[in-house]
Structure prediction request, 102 residues.
Amino acid sequence: MHRKYNALGASMKTATIPSLRVDPELRRSAESVLHEGESLSGFVEHAIRKTIAYRQAEKEFVVRGLVARDQARQTGHYVEASAVLDRLQGMLDKAKAGKSQA
Prediction:
């Protein structure tokens, strides 16, 4: 979505997303979860933004994984799966301990 900014810095929409035909039940479901004062258009825009952010993060994750794979192949340095799992378990245990103290 493209935006232009006016003199006060507020954004003004300058592009549209194509209209979307959906099953009436999907529309009713979407309308049933709107927050007070939220429009269906705002809900759809928010969903699109969240999905874009998720897919960008997913793409970056895959790229980092491929780079790590290539580095491991080049250097021959690999980390045992059990070491990774132990570290992750430690992180999880620490997070759980922090929550129980809160």
